[in-house]
Amino acid sequence: MPAFSRFTPLISALPATVPFVGPEAIERNRGLAVKARIGANENGFGPSPLAIEAMCAAAGETWKYADPENFELKQALASHLGCAADNIAIGEGVDSLLGLVVRMVIDPGLPVVTSFGAYPTFNFHVAGHGGRLVTVPYLDDRENLEGLLEAVRRENAPLVYFANPDNPMGSWWDADNIVAFARALPESCLMILDEAYCETGPADATPAISALIDQPNVIRTRTFSKAYGMAGSRVGYAISTPGTAQAFDKIRNHFGMNRIGVAAALAALKDQAYLSQVIDRIRDSRERIARVAESNGLKPLPSATNFVAIDCGRDGAHARSIVDGLMEHGVFIRMPGVAPLNRCIRISTGPESDMVFLEEALPKVLKNL
Amino acid sequence: MPAFSRFTPLISALPATVPFVGPEAIERNRGLAVKARIGANENGFGPSPLAIEAMCAAAGETWKYADPENFELKQALASHLGCAADNIAIGEGVDSLLGLVVRMVIDPGLPVVTSFGAYPTFNFHVAGHGGRLVTVPYLDDRENLEGLLEAVRRENAPLVYFANPDNPMGSWWDADNIVAFARALPESCLMILDEAYCETGPADATPAISALIDQPNVIRTRTFSKAYGMAGSRVGYAISTPGTAQAFDKIRNHFGMNRIGVAAALAALKDQAYLSQVIDRIRDSRERIARVAESNGLKPLPSATNFVAIDCGRDGAHARSIVDGLMEHGVFIRMPGVAPLNRCIRISTGPESDMVFLEEALPKVLKNL
Known about the structure:
The structure is a homodimer. The first copy, chain A, has about 375 residues and is of the alpha/beta class. Chain A has 2 domains: about 20-45 and about 275-369, Aspartate Aminotransferase, domain 1 (Alpha-Beta Complex); about 50-270, Aspartate Aminotransferase, domain 2, CATH 3.40.640. Chain A is about 45% helix and about 15% strand. Chain A has a 7-stranded mixed sheet, with helices on both faces. In chain A, strands 9-10-12 form a 3-stranded antiparallel sheet. Chain A has a two-stranded parallel ribbon with strand order 1-11. In chain A, helix 6 (about 120-130) links the parallel strand 3 (about 110-115) and strand 4 (about 130-135). Chain A is globular. At the A-B interface, helix 1, helix 2, helix 3, helix 5 and helix 10 of A face helix 1, helix 2, helix 3, helix 5 and helix 10 of B. Chains A, B: Keywords: Aminotransferase, Pyridoxal phosphate, Transferase.
């Protein structure tokens, strides 16, 4: 397959295959239909009806680009969060923002600290910019704050990534620990605090906005993809000092936001009552998943997210056979990628019908192993 | 405004201000309301009703990420274009794809050839990756193919950008000239052939897909933002050899596409009858704009796009005063950024009501100068 002969050395060296397999690809490749889509930490409870209404209303306006300054959405988020609009940068989902942050900080060869088995898309961006991943093992299924800090210091790393609550394990640290970690970081190291799951965790797991807002080396990322139920809308945002936030403007795709997604985010943000209901449903669904796991002899781990990691008690091959077996029954789930996390499977919360499919399929799968 | 202290030297050196001012920002900053939005080469005739229907239908599905492989859309485009799905890469608008291509090819200091006064967003991406812009003046308001080729050879440039039909001048070359240019390019130079406006030009201005599909150093970019009337949906695509197309997978934001936009693009693509009608309306509107210009003593240039560049006969300051003056009447237009192109203003086609606003405002503005 002839390709252009003069891509940069970095691009030429990157693998052509990438570790992203969506449920649609599984359906196509295996000839199976997904009945319960509870693998990608999407939110089957869906967005606020007001957001859906806003999407339809905005459909007729899609001939216009969105406002490249994202003025309204930044204002609304600032008001919601209790910070200034200048503290916020908007992007096409957190994935896009993560890519920009890596690009801002990483020249080829520079070290980037993250946990071993943490978010693969972040690692993808690090590789794409030639960074050198320095990984720290999880400790008791939580990201190891002391270990991450030690690695940053040892390597003089300019970038560390940390998710709280964590994906893929669902674990979390209290706000005090997070703030202490941020304070202890050398100012020459930028911390990405990925809070994609902050809405579904205990209140005391999320630092107050004011706690970190003055620290130029902290960027907190949040999204409308999880609790707000709008993964397909591609709206994420970053919170940092105005000076740090402004760096996004230097390289971001200014006209990258889709107009309907922005309208939906504005409407969803206004409907906090709906969000509260969904968070309750997510908590109930977590408990339901935990009961299903326990009644099948598996061990659910505590979770502050919209998914539950379940310890299946053996190795990655065993967990993989459960993931594959469930898919045979139309139940799409995922699992962590590396040991020892990969003794677990990871099941996203979802509506009753999804839970019924899971409840029916899991014992059959386990029996067949 | 304190910022993180250790951004890369490249990022630190980039300007914090960027040359993108949307109509919403003009409204906010000048306290004016846009009545005729005919400045950003959007398409006020709007998308197919089937696309709008598809957007509403997809709204309830926004809790799901879009298929990261964009399988369906690639299949549909391949079928429409008469190539293979492997020849296509999908992105969040052409702007996003342009950024990726620059990243694939440009290490800091490498030369990038483009026309002086061509697409600013491309230049933004070149600057963002540290490329060195080598510009060639327009010749008789067309991009200078011979001059571009000569610059590529002289500089041993790995990348050349060329839009056909052209923005901001609306001019074009015949397909034969484009193909001859591509054939004459050194294989060590990647050509971006930006065909954002191909649907609105004469048929013989666009090379057949088959004419360039085997050339690994050609990437053609197209969009649903212009003739298809979906600028706010953020759906663009690139056409190249499978080997070159695959390079996008190494670095693109795999889950970056918004689900509603993809659904809308699929529906719009099916409604070619509507597209034909819109293209007719765009042609009529071009003629209308030309008549308005002429009746005010200005000289419209021939256009193959959804806008008309109008020679106002003097310098950039004069054209700027017309742009600013029209905005006082709620008529948002733009103008080329550099001399000698900036003797012109640039007015996008649009529905009758927009044309009426323009027709009424222009003589008043000219009289007041």
